[in-house]
Amino acid sequence: MAGPSGKKEKVDKAGPSGGGKKKKDVKKETGLGLSVKKDENFGEWYSEVCKHEMIEYYDISGCYILRPWSMAIWEIMQTFFDAEIKKMKVKNCYFPLFVSPGVLEKEKDHIEGFAPEVAWVTKSGKSDLEVPIAIRPTSETVMYPYYSKWIRGHRDLPLKLNQWCNVVRWEFSNPTPFIRSREFLWQEGHTAFATKEEADEEVLQILELYRRIYEEYLAVPVVKGMKSENEKFAGGLYTTSVEAFIPNTGRGVQGATSHCLGQNFAKMFEIRYEDEEGKREMVWQNSWAYSTRTIGVMIMTHGDDKGLILPPKVASVQVVVIPVPYKDANTQGIFDACTATVSALSEAGIRAEEDLRDNYSPGWKYSNWEMKGVPLRIEIGPRDLENDQVRTVRRDNGVKEDIPRGSLVEHVKELLEKIQQNMYEVARQKREACVQEIRTWDEFISALNQKKLILAPWCDEEEVERDVKARTKGETGAAKTLCSPFEQPELPEGTLCFASGKPAKKWTYWGRSY
Ligand code: 87F
């Protein structure tokens, strides 16, 4: 229930529903509040939360409108990541959206499994195109013919390019805003090196940036690790990823991937360079991406029964200032104090906004901004004006505090940092509570049924992973490996694989996933 919280007062006096109505009716008329709880119907809850005002549904299934409220989050992450990769000497570029069928099929092996998801343009106006044109699902085949052209000698290396773009994958399994959509935004980095060592190093540097996006910006804990042979990008040598976990559904979610492609694509696209001795060598390549899926993971992790909760670092409005005028109070004085508060915060680089709308009551505004997830609310009423203070209300834990206007900026800065920290810490604890170390098949099945994030000793054989998938297939999807964490717990001599009974080679996270 997202009823008005905070100080006692009459609600909806000036609200859109007029006076004297019951809360329930008000909710119906204003669209305030969520109709389902996160724990009761997660899917419905998620879709409702997204609709306030992250996403608008579109009349093509699997396609969504990103409204300013979510686009702003994307842009903040983009600003961070773009600056970081530029420090690594990665340059931005833009390749076309369309792929000619020739190059797309050149790279048969990896495209084979993906082919059903490729969307094609077959007409212009009413006439058929002579040759249909594919829409990029990813840009290896678009870019690499030009890498072959541009790379000649060792001085052309490393070549490090990135593009910010959209891609289309015509998925058929249930679309979910941000998490699985047919068109999405991402960055895709494609780099080429003379040596495997350089490529290996970059894979991990990029993965660390992905960890930072999740943990430092979105306050979502992730595990860094290696994908299994079954789950890696088939066209590459190895795949690393950051993996998040959604406790409510008990599903893992691949947060972002950083691949070492080895020399597979170099062979196919003939990307060679002449080394110092004049020998022709193949390049080593990487590719890496994160997408708007990040936003979905953040929403799922932090949202509650009142709606979204945005981590301060990515919130486009970090602080909302709401006047609480009372009948006989100095309304103009309160409004002026709100404006002055926003100015002071803005000058200090804090993203603050006031909500001076006179057709909504303070209570309605509280609920509305809570629903939108603004991390901190400031209320200013007659008593605050009198005492030269403001009241702060945290979105993450509801804690209220009166702070003197004299130390407003320092206080708010500190609060925003605390909120960011606390959101991460709460999310980490919730995830930790889901992690279950198991050793046997029975323990595995029982943990899976309890929606756990399973850490299991595994023999690392592809056949065994396929077998686990087959044996766990059901309505809610099969279990598979999420990743083998780089941080491995100790694996005592003689530990056996939970699924095959063979000697275990490593600890691996397993679970159902998005
Ligand atoms: C769908 C259709 C066609 C994923 C696809 O992860 C091709 C593909 O190649 C496809 N879905 N992939 C794998 C993408 C690999 C790789 N590309 C660059 C990344 C990072 C960015």
Question: In a nutshell, what does this entry contain?
Answer:
This protein has 514 residues and is of the alpha+beta class. It is 35% helix and 25% strand.
List keywords for this structure.
five-stranded mixed barrel; disordered N terminus; alpha+beta; binds ligand 87F; 514 residues; globular
Your description of this structure?
By secondary structure, the protein is α+β, with helices and mostly antiparallel strands. The protein has helices spanning 23-30, 42-51, 68-87, 101-106, 108-112, 140-150, 196-217, 264-269, 293-302, 331-347, 362-371, 382-387, 408-434, 441-449, 462-472; strands at 55-57, 64-66, 91-92, 98-99, 120-124, 127-135, 159-168, 183-193, 223-226, 238-246, 251-262, 272-274, 280-282, 284-291, 319-323, 352-354, 376-380, 389-394, 400-404, 435-437, 453-458, 480-485, 506-513. It has a five-stranded mixed beta barrel with strand order 9-10-11-23-22. The chain has a five-stranded mixed sheet with strand order 16-15-17-18-19, sandwiched between helices. Strands 4-6-5 form a three-stranded antiparallel sheet. α3 runs antiparallel to α7 (196-217). It is globular. The two termini are 28 Å apart. Residues 1-29 have low confidence and may be disordered. Bound molecules: ligand 87F.
* Physical arrangement of strands within the biggest beta sheet: 9-10-11-23-22
Shape: globular
Tell me the strand percentage band. 25-35%
Unreliable residue runs: 1-29
Distance from N terminus to C terminus (CA atoms, Å) equals 28 Å
Class by alpha and beta content: alpha+beta
Question: Quick check: average pLDDT?
Answer: 93
> How many extended strands?
23
Radius of gyration: 26 Å
Biased composition (Basic and acidic residues): 1-13
Organism: Brassica carinata (Ethiopian mustard)
Pfam families: HGTP_anticodon, ProRS-C_1, tRNA-synt_2b
Keywords: Aminoacyl-tRNA synthetase, ATP-binding, Ligase, Nucleotide-binding, Protein biosynthesis
